[in-house]
Design goal:
This protein has a single domain (9-371), classed as Jelly Rolls, CATH 2.60.120.330. Helices cover 34% and strands 17% of the residues. The chain has helices spanning 3-22, 26-31, 67-70, 75-88, 101-116, 119-123, 161-164, 175-200, 212-223, 290-295, 350-359, 366-371; strands spanning 64-66, 91-95, 134-138, 152-157, 226-234, 246-249, 255-260, 266-270, 273-276, 284-288, 305-307, 315-323. The longest helix is centred in the middle third of the chain and has 26 residues, at 175-200. Bound molecules: N-oxalylglycine and nickel (II) ion. Nickel (II) ion binds at residues 249, 251, 305.
Length: 374
Amino acid sequence: MSPTIVLEVETRFEEEERLDEFQKGVKHLCERGITKVPRKYILPALERPILTKKDDATNFKLPVIDFDQLQGPNRVHALKSLSKACEEYGFFQLINHGIACQSIVDMIEAGRKFFELSFEERSKYMSKDLRAPVRYGTSFNQNKDRVFCWRDFLKLDCHPLSDVLPYWPSSPTELRQAAVNYSEKTRFLYLMIVEAILESLGLVETTKDSDENDSDDHIKEFRDGSQLLVVNCYPSCPEPDLTLGIPPHSDYGFLTLLLQDEVKGLQIQHETRWVTVEPVPNSFVINVGDHLEIFSNGRYKSVLHRVLVNSLNSRISIASLHSLPFESMIRPSPKLINDANPRRYKDTDFASFIEYIASHEHRSKNFLESRRLT
Ligand code: OGA
Ligand code: NI
């Protein structure tokens, strides 16, 4: 065999041997020291991000919703901004949300410390079961993805807390307390936003000085809804133009409350461009998920987003994904369907979603597309 062929065979052999290693995650890969992105993470040329020094959408600003205004005398005005944001962007920044800074810092720090544990410790929580109450993993769907993405994650099921808590990692020691506190606070905030969203869709009357019971009836099903906390870890990447932290996707739930640290990376698709969502200290990025798009019969948009990685900094984000109870059927609200606005989506439930993601490689919004009535 010629020396070149020997070299090629060896390289391929090494790469294949490493395929199993890739299942252990990006953090593990980086800890072993790499200077190039392995082939497994290299996207086809057309799917790679174009990283320019200067953002081509420097002027892009996500709509800002002030939670204080929403809960105060300016509610009607704030509701208008909220519905405009959900219709046109599918995303908004929430400021003055009322969650103590300390709860947020504690959650980010606990998440960061989890990823600083040894691989042996972290790997105790690896599971192929998409319904496991705790799941440490990598990429988007590591059982299916042909190209891996540059992300590790820890997913904690949060509801009902007393059932799931015993499964949560016991190390780092502060994780459970921080995540309990954070999940309770975000759950409360989510319910307040849902009330506002129902109101903005015209499904409940203005609540502040009218009969509170009216909105209570509507919100009941949401109160017992599912919640999943996802700690995303994006290690710094030697060749960030070849890969992505998360490929373009939409979130499947009702709403996602996302906390970004100070490192940027999140991009959303807006008017056919990819635009960066600048981190705003002390705010949440909130986005419409597939279930809300279905529930609103297409009025509110579940928008594609993706995550870029960078060569200088690693990045942590915490996503709190909320929806109706797992056993609930998601359907367009009957009050939003009429002759002028016919039903646009089929009924859907979590079981069909889980089945879908377990059997398909996740590509863009294809789950939602599969629910669309033509
Ligand atoms: C997600 C997501 C964005 C981010 O977890 O679904 O889109 O910035 N995260 O980490
Ligand atoms: Ni997302």
